Amino acid sequence: MLRCGLLGERLSHSFSPQIHAELGDYEYRLYEKKPEELEDFLRHGAFDGLNVTVPYKRAVVPFCDSLSSVAAITGSVNTLIRRPGGGLYGDSTDIFGFGFLLKKTGVDLDAGRTLVLGSGGSSLAVQAALLEMRAREFAVISRSGADHYGNLEKHSGAVMLINTTPVGMYPDNGASPIADLGLFPSCRTVIDLIYNPARTELLLQAEERGLLAVNGLTMLVAQAKRSAELFTGAPVPDEAIDAVAAKIARDTQNIALIGMPGCGKTSVGTALAKKLGRPFADTDARVAEAAGKPIPAILAEDGEDAFRKLETEALRDFCARSGMVVATGGGVVTRPENRRILRQNSVVVYVDRALNELSVSGRPLSQRDGVEALAAARLPLYATWGEVAVPVRGGVERTAADICEKLFGGMA
After folding, report:
1. Which residues have CB under 8 Å from 331's CB, separation 6+?
2. By CB count within 10 A, which of 14, 50, 201, 343 is most buried?
């Protein structure tokens, strides 16, 4: 069996093994290497083909015995093939991947200036694709030089932004290369090559402004499709790209449950996680563990604000991960910042249970304020935050099955 994989420095965020499992019959492993390990691995590593990601797309070029014309022009390699004699052939499938993504979005490259954020290996591929597709005008923003992050106002008329930097990539969720998209009042499209989280802080900003916001998953799958052809020598139809991207998006997106205290989020979430074969997490359980005491004691001794801060920390940890089922506390919607945390990597499901069926046992806030008062404040937020609403009917297993039906048309 062919021995293939992904070479990089930090790879815990990568979806590449799942993608290549859909594209071809070969081994695909993650090879995390420090810079000082790179040369020995490239010269003596036991592999037949590799994808290459940050920070090594340019660093591997000197070790290649031959380059494709595209890789030679860009000076960047994201695919390596071990030739029969032991030499390395370097190619860049990122140009195909980004070109496929651009065509899929349908953006008009003649509409105005495009800003490319970053000048690394991914940026070089994006620039080459823009040139190939005859983009009207683009500028590259780097840390220094004529166009940098300190003089972005020069480009306030840009109509499209493309982030090629790793800023905001897991596990550094929440960071953004642009603090305020309001600097670009003419912008209509934001593309972030990051795919984990699904919605970076940059993309969340874009969505809030009503802009077209696109992550890099389709590009990742498209370049992987072309890499798979290089690995195996066999064609893979372009039609596979959308199907694989949709499957990866579905499988890696968290399912976060919100709803009133006592609606059954923990029990439904446990059943749902078992049904889907996913890890399960409960923010209330994490808060109690972090505080070293049960939630009623936290509320009584430390106050609700202290509890909410711990809840947000737990939510931030769980929702940065992928492919989980997360049950949240009933009051998670009382802190606006939690919505951004949920949206970065989750589909939010509102578990809707009749108020007269909600238990108040062991729930201090329900006992203190009353279910009706809590409902008056929170129900509008559940309805707004939830992307899917599922009524509780017929018990835990039935509700878990209903969620599967709503999200996946049945069992995933």
Report:
1. 261, 308, 311, 365, 378
2. 50
Condensed to tens digits (0 to 9), the pLDDT of residues 232-276 reads 999 999 999 999 999 999 999 999 999 999 999 999 999 999 999
323: left (phi over 0), alpha (psi -120 to 50) or beta: left
199, 201, 248, 239: which is closest to 104 by C-alpha? 239
Contact 205, 181 (CB under 8 A): yes
Residue that is written with structure tokens 């509700």 in the block: 399
Res 12: pLDDT = 87
- Find out whether 189 and 108 touch, Cβ atoms under 8 Å: no
Lookup: tokens for 385: 């935050």
Residue of 57, 104, 275, 293 with catalytic role: 57
d(CA 278, CA 403): 14
Residue 411: band (very low, low, confident or very high) from pLDDT cuts 50, 70, 90: low
* Strands, E assignment, 199-244: 212-214
CA atoms within 13 A on the CB side of 350: 18
Instruction: Tell me which residue of 67, 85, 84 sits closest to 76, measured CA to CA.
Output: 67
The three-class DSSP label of residue 336 is coil
Determine the pLDDT at residue 159. 97
Q: What is the DSSP letter of 327?
A: E
**Is residue 48 packed enough to be buried (19+ CB in 10 Å), middle (13-18) or exposed (0-12)?**
middle
Nearest to 13 by CA among 240, 135, 170: 170
Buried b (16+ CB within 10 A) or exposed e, 298-315: beeeeeeeebbebbbebb
Tokens of 86: 């032991």
- Respond yes or no: is residue 57 known to be catalytic: yes
Contacts of 144 (CB under 8 A, 6+ apart): none
Measured at the CA of 267, the angle between CA 286 and CA 388, to 5 degrees, comes to 95
C-alpha to C-alpha distance for 183 and 156, rounded to whole angstroms: 6
The crossing angle, in degrees rounded to 10, of helices 94-105 and 217-232 is 140
Distance between CA atoms of residues 92 and 30, nearest Å: 19
Give the whole-angstrom CA distance, residue 107 versus residue 212: 9
- The pLDDT tens digits for 47-73 are 999 999 999 999 999 999 999 999 999
Q: Assign 3-state DSSP to the chain and report helix, strand, coil percentages, each to 5.
A: 45, 15, 35
